[in-house]
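Study this chain:
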Amino acid sequence: MSGGATPEGGPVTGTGSPSALPPLLLDAVVSVAGDLSLDGVLARIVEAASALAGARYAALGVLGSGPERRLRTFVHHGMGPEVVTEIGDLPTGHGLLGLIIDRPEPLRLHDIAEHPASYGFPPHHPPMRSFLGVPVRIRGRVFGNLYLTEKAGEGDFTEEDERVVVALAAAAGVAIENARLYEEAAQRERWLAATAEITRILATAGPGRTALQVVADHARRASGADAAGVVVGPVSGPLALAAVAGSHPGLALLGHPTGEDDPLREVLRTGAPVRTELSGPAVLVPLPGERDGSRDGTRSGPRSGPRNGGVLALAWTDDRHEHARALDPQLAVAFAEQAALALEVSRARADQQRLAVFEDRDRIGRDLHDLVIQRLFATGLTLQSAARLSDRPDVTERLERSVDELDATIRDIRRSIYELGAADADADLQTEVTRLVDRAAAALQARPGLRFDGPVRTGVPDEVAPHLLAVLGEALSNATRHASANEVSVELSVGDQVRLVVTDDGVGLPENAPHRGLLNLRERAERLGGRFLVESAPGAGTRLVWQVPAGG
C-alpha cells in the first residue's frame, strides 16, 4: 500500500450527496466494541473495514509517540502468513502511508502506483491498485490510519465507501480508547497484585538477596518485561547487580556505570524514574535506600538527596518498544516504594528475632557462669584442700590432675559463653567487641583500654568475625583470671589484615603454664591462613597478637 491516482492523474475525492449508512455499519461498530483487549479491537477494526468497503486488503497503522510520528504497529488483514513472511519488514510510514500521516484526512486513489508519493512495492508483495485511507482519531488526536486496497470487482472506492469507513473510524476511536483504559486498569491490577504478593512473602522471609530476587521476579511479571534486575549501592561508589529475573544482555551493563551522568546515577541521585536503552528499551525506577548505612542498600530512606539505595531496572528486547512505552513508570515507582517498605519491615522483624536470640544466649551464659562454673570452682578448691591432707604422693598427683581438668573444663565453658555472644553475619562486630570488653571490666580494677583502627564494622569478613570474638573472649578471660593485671588494652585494626592485639601488665606466663587455650587460638588463626604470636616473660606482662587476612 504505497501510492496511486485516478485515470486522469488526480485523486478520487467525490462530494456527492450522502446516502443512508448501511445497516451493516451498526453491526460492525457493535462487533468492534465487543473486545476489551487493544490487540483484539485493532484486529476487529481492520476486518470490519474490509467487509464494509468491500476491500480485499485492509490495515491499521498505529502512530508512534516519537517526534517523527512514524508507524509503530501495523495490523493487517487479507494476506496469509506465508506472504507476510516473504515480504519481510512491515511498513513504518513512508511514501504514501507517510503522506496520510503528515496530512491526516481521507484519501481515495484509482491506482496507487501512479501517485507521486508512491515508493512502489517490495518483492513478493501482492498487486494493489485502488486505495482508500482514513485517519483514526481519539479525543481529537490522530491515533493511526486505516488503509484499504483492491476494491471488490476491480473498481474504485466510492464516496459512500469513504463515508462508511470514516464513520467506522470514529466509532473505532471510542473502542480503542475504551480498550486502552481497560488495559491501563488491568496493568494497575497486576501491579497491585504484585505489591500485595511481595508484602506477603517478605513478611515471612528475611531481608537480603533472596528478598531482592522476589522483588525482581514480581516486577518482571507485573510489567511484562523480558527481564528485571535490582542494582544496589551508593550514589558515588561501586554498584552491584544483586538480583536478576529473566534474560537480557543489557542487564549486564548495570553493574558498571559509565560515569556520574549514567542513568543509574541519575536515578539514585534524583529519585525519579528514567527511560533509557539497554540493548533495547528499559525503564529505571528508584528503590529507596537505607537510613543507617546498612550494606545491602535495602532500607527505606528519604526520597531526595544522596543516599545508599537501589534501582529497579525493567528491560525489553529491541522489538518490543510498544510494550515498554505502554508501561506507566509511576506504577513501577509505587511498587518499588512498597517493596522497600516491606524489606524494611522484614529487616526490623529479623532484628527483633536476632535480639531475642542474643538475649537467650546471654541468659544461658549467665546461668553457666553463675551456677555451673561456680560449682566446678568450689569442687576444685575442695580437691585442692584434700590433696594437702593426703600423705600419699599418688593420691595427691591424681587430685591435682583432677583440679587441672576442672580448670580446663571451666575455661572451655567460659569460651563457650563468649562464643554464645559472637555475632552472626549481620550483627555489628564493633558493638560485640565493645560488649566483651565491658564484660571483662567487671572482673578488673579498671576497664580495659579499647582502640579501633580501620573499617571494623564492614571490613571483617563474616567467616572471620566469630573466630575473632572467640579469641578476644579467651584472651580477656586469661587476663582477668590468671594475669593479676592492673591494666589491659585491646587494639583491633582492619586493613589488608585483621589484627587483634591484647596486652596486659600482669605476672606473665609461667614456664609450666598449660597451653591448651593458646593452642586453640593458634589453630583458629592457622585455619584462616593467619598466625598467632605470644610475647611474655615472668613479671613482665603478656602480649597476644592474633592476625588473619582480611580476605578470610
Notes: The first helix runs from residue 23 to 32.
